[in-house]
Amino acid sequence: MATDDKCWTTGDDDAYWKSRSAPTSDAALAAIARHISYYLSDEYLQRDKYLLRQVRCKKDGYISLKLITSFKNIKKLTTDCCVVRSAIVRKSESIVVSSDGMRVRRRTSLPEDLKKPRLLKTVLAIRLPEAYRSEEDVTSLFRMFGEINYIRLLEAGREVPSDLRNYATQVKDIGHSLCAVVNFKTTDAALDAVRNIKQHIRHVDDIVVNTTSQLPSQQEETAASSIGDDGSGKQQVPPVNSYESYRKRLSDLPDLDDCRLALLGPRVRRTLYRQDKTSTTTPSAIVMSSSSSTSSSSNTSSSCEPDVTGGSTASSSSSAPRHHTVLRHPRGPDGSGGFRLARNL
């Protein structure tokens, strides 16, 4: 990164403070400069993904001076952006201020390993069942998708490792349920694991719903159709890395129940708990709905049968108009319970 010829200098800073009260002591300015130099160093940017994204997304590498001033250690020393600017131009050799005095950047370019977006190779699994309490059991679940670098188990009630505390503030299950962090050798392997295990969980839920609400004969048809026969008598060959190629091995493992998993990255919380929102219709609710609809249909059919005692049918008597009161919202201007309408059905 070439040094900007037009940047905020000590002369500009002297002119700014000429008609104002002088900034804080040299010792305080030096402390502020040390903190900011550390925040924009390679070492810190490798850990702070948010700040790294801010630096990386700007073509010239500048970030807001107000953003730097909002950092906790800086606010302990000062909340004045102008004092922070003075500290940089007077005491820092690695940071420069833009000519308008409102932005700061490093004097040197980011190294190549920080310029490229980080590839997500780590999977976070939360709410693992007790059957996956050991590292060996977790390995049996994930090793089919690719080579694994390491696995870390996070037990409920145990202290969260320091490098995962930032995620623990977003994902409430970390530290409160059995979780696992699985790091793969490649990004493709991590993506395959997340995609196929999520599909397997949905597939198992669908089978539970369908078989619970079906008759025994229908359950046999569903089981037969899940084998993969396309009707020609030949077994279908699933494509490589598709769910069908993993389904048999996943089905042989212990059930995952309410397990959720996602790539460990900036959107991990949204991805994990979005799965809860998409599965709000539980199997029991579907079964209850199915049984209630069945009973209502049977009641309807029975009401249409001939009345042998009276010699007339219920359907003929139902041809007379029936009045139903329908409650309309919002409520009326007088505070009454909505507008009431009598409708002939």
| Widest sheet: strand ordering | 5-6-4-7
Straight-line N-to-C gap: 77 Å
The value of Rg in angstroms is: 33 Å
Strand portion, in percent?
5-15%
Anisotropy-based shape: elongated
* SSE string: HHHHEHHHEEHEHEHEHHHEHHEEHEE
Give the count of helical stretches: 16
The number of strands is 11
Average pLDDT over all residues: 77
Question: Helix/strand/pairing class, anyone?
Answer: alpha+beta
**Main sheet record:** 4 strands, antiparallel
| Low-confidence regions | 219-238, 281-290, 300-321
Helical fraction equals 40-55%
Structure description:
By secondary structure, the protein is an alpha+beta fold. 45% of the residues lie in helices and 14% in strands. The chain is built from 16 helices and eleven strands. Strands 5-6-4-7 form a four-stranded antiparallel sheet. Mean pLDDT is 77; it is low at 219-238, 281-290 and 300-321.
Question: What is this entry, summarized?
Answer:
The chain has helices spanning 10-18, 26-39, 42-45, 49-57, 65-69, 72-75, 81-91, 112-115, 135-142, 165-168, 187-213, 216-225, 243-251, 268-278, 283-303, 314-317, and strands at 63-64, 95-97, 103-106, 122-126, 148-154, 179-184, 260-263, 306-307, 312-313, 323-328, 339-344. With 345 residues, the protein is of the alpha+beta class. The termini are far apart.
Characteristics of this structure?
single chain; 345 residues; alpha+beta; four-stranded antiparallel sheet; three-stranded antiparallel sheet; 16 helices; 11 strands; 14% strand; elongated
